[in-house]
Amino acid sequence: QKEVEQDPGPLSVPEGAIVSLNCTYSNSAFQYFMWYRQYSRKGPELLMYTYSSGNKEDGRFTAQVDKSSKYISLFIRDSQPSDSATYLCAMSGMEYGNKLVFGAGTILRVKS
Amino acid sequence: NAGVTQTPKFQVLKTGQSMTLQCAQDMNHNSMYWYRQDPGMGLRLIYYSASEGTTDKGEVPNGYNVSRLNKREFSLRLESAAPSQTSVYFCASSVGARANVLTFGAGSRLTVL
Q1: Among A64, B94, B106, B113, which residue's CB has the most CB atoms within a 10 Å radius?
Q2: Alpha-carbon distance A13 to B14, whole Å?
Q3: Per-residue pLDDT tens digits for A36-93
Q4: Are B21 and B108 in contact (CB under 8 A)?
Q5: Could you tell me which of A93, A102, A4 has the C-alpha nearest to residue B33?
Q6: Do the Cβ atoms of A99 and B45 come within 8 Å?
Q7: pLDDT tens profile B61-101
Q8: Half-sphere exposure for B62 (CA within 13 Å, toward CB)
Q9: Residue B17 pairs with which residues in a beta bridge?
């Protein structure tokens, strides 16, 4: 079993839809939770960064962490064609030192 | 700002050949990393360098070597390439040893025949 599970998609939605992207994990030692966005043929870029449980909002993006369920989510409101990308969840904890553990990524396609 | 620059962008090798992937960052970051990305596998850490003069193995180090040439540069060497090393390689850097906020390069696409 992978430490971090993420549905690969693709997830296809119409422009303006609310998108929900999710990851589950197995190790309760994870403390830091990130979402990276990767456009085709580009490197990932950090989108959201949260510590422990709770919500964090940044514009149209909301990151949610539920440590009791070992489940994290990224919500995108009013989705745009420019949001079409692969979204990678990542997480780390003190026992992981310098090592981020990534999910395999979910491909999102927003149709205009 | 160039950020993290990787060369080459594309490379085709034959089995057994060697090559070095180059990475340079201009953000004065202390830590640098090499990842590989394969379909369905996500990003996997090959080697990292927490600071100049140090290197450590990541999750999948076999078949690779690294050199932290100076604070800016971190190279990845394949001594005897194998088809299993066909992948997209990403270099990344971070300000400190806490690797949560990574800046990635654009990637190097390697095919081993």
Answers
A1: B94
A2: 42
A3: 999 999 999 999 999 888 899 999 999 999 999 999 999 999 999 999 999 999 999 8
A4: yes
A5: A102
A6: yes
A7: 999 999 999 999 999 999 999 999 999 999 999 987 666 78
A8: 2
A9: none
